[in-house]
Amino acid sequence: MCVLSCLMINAVAQKKFLETEITNGLISVHFYLPDSNKGYYRATRFDWSGLITSLKYNGHDFYGQWYETYSPTTHDAVMGPVEEFSPVGYNEAKVGGSFIKIGVGALSKLDDSAYSSYMLYQILNPGKWKVKKKSDQIQFVHELNDVEYSYEYKKTIKLTNGKPGLVLSHSLKNTGQRTIGINGIMRLGMTT
To answer: Is the separation of the CB atoms in 167 and 188 below 8 Å?
Structure first.
């Protein structure tokens, strides 16, 4: 069993994912970058941006892969501070119609059952990701232009100058015709 597990972990380590790092001299942070074809995480539960694979400070390395078994479409294949946005337009969508998850894109409603964050939904439109990086900060910009909803979502992760701190900030601009409600829209979880 150990041989199989070691081979699976080694296979993940050998895959090439889009990645980058930032540092403020005290903290070094390594990220996997969002991409609908080559991204480390491509499931439909969590925001694809800000996947911290490693945060190093004072001789300690935080975060990392949770499970030995890996698939880019496994919901728990995320790392770092994990953020999940509530679905927008799910209840109004017809079966086969679209709804959105901010940071993921436009998804297809599978049936008439209630939304489940544990279900893997078909991605109809992944939108476009842009990454802007400086030595001590990174900004992820997700633009979705879709039939029902359109938005520009920005997440910035900035290391505090001269201190061991990390600040996450977000903005969401509705660029479409339909209202994007904000009640209970986001949940934050931490992985270690």
So the answer is: no
